[in-house]
TrEMBL record:
This is Uncharacterized protein. Residues 1-20, 42-65 are annotated as: Disordered. Residues 48-57 have a biased composition (Gly residues). It comes from Streptomyces capillispiralis.
């Protein structure tokens, strides 16, 4: 294979490719931020028609006692 057919990587301004772990960490940070914002929105909205997430199955544990 000649040098002409191989793409050359060079130049001081070129950013090296990110590793898979770094990409996953960035995605997890973005997901965490989105979930935190969603949680804040839900907390600000107050309980919904079903009484909030805590109301689902809340009495199930105590019925057997």
């Amino acid at each position: 294979m000649s040098e002409e057919s191989v793409p050359q990587r060079g130049g001081a301004a070129e950013v090296p490719p990110k590793g898979l772990l770094q990409q996953m960490e960035e995605l997890m940070a973005a997901l965490n931020a989105d979930l935190s914002a969603l949680d804040a929105d839900l907390q600000a909205a107050g309980p919904g028609r079903d009484g909030g997430a805590g109301a689902v199955g809340a009495g199930d544990e105590r019925e057997g006692r």
